[in-house]
Amino acid sequence: MSTERKESEKSEALQTYSEVFKRQIVKEFEQGLFTKAELRRRYNIHGNSCIPRWLKKYGKFTYQDKLTRGRPMKDPQSQRIKELEAQLAKREQELLVLKKFIEIAERELKVEIVKKSGSKQSKK
């Protein structure tokens, strides 16, 4: 009886799924309709690593290599845009600070640090 059980377990473990089916599972998960566990139960999917692999392969979001709980990460392109906008805002603030330093130094030292446009550069 134990050999019959092992054979049935092996046949379940070797179950294959079509690409259309996998994409449908990914779509349902990314739309937030079901969790991974609910999808496994609903469609009788064996193994905990099937759906995460499909998400990485067919999903439109970025998924970590480790298995995580919760919803997928935000769209990587919009996430990258936000990061770049934050870096730009920081650089603009730094530029304003540097311009103020130059303005103060010119006023205090009575020296022209920034050359005016159209002026000749000194030769060495």
Structure in words:
- With 124 residues, this protein is mostly helical.
- It has two domains: 57 residues, no CATH class; 50 residues, no CATH class.
- 60% of the residues lie in helices and 0% in strands.
- It is rod-shaped.
- The N and C termini lie far apart (96 Å).
Summarize the model shown.
The chain is mainly α.
Give a topology summary:
Elements: H1 2-13, H2 19-30, H3 36-43, H4 50-58, H5 76-109
Alpha-carbon Rg, integer:
30 Å
Structural class of the secondary structure composition?
A: mainly alpha
Written as H for each helix and E for each strand, in order along the chain, the element string is HHHHH
Oligomer: single chain
Approximately what portion of the residues adopt beta-strand conformation? under 5%
Q: Which bin fits the share of residues in helices?
A: 55-70%
Query: Please, what is the average pLDDT?
Result: 80
The major beta sheet can be summarized as: none
What number of structural domains do the residues give? 2
The CA-CA distance between the termini, in Å, is: 96 Å
Report the uncertain regions.
1-8
- Based on DSSP secondary structure assignment, what is the total number of beta strands? 0
Shape: rod-shaped
Helix segment tally = 5
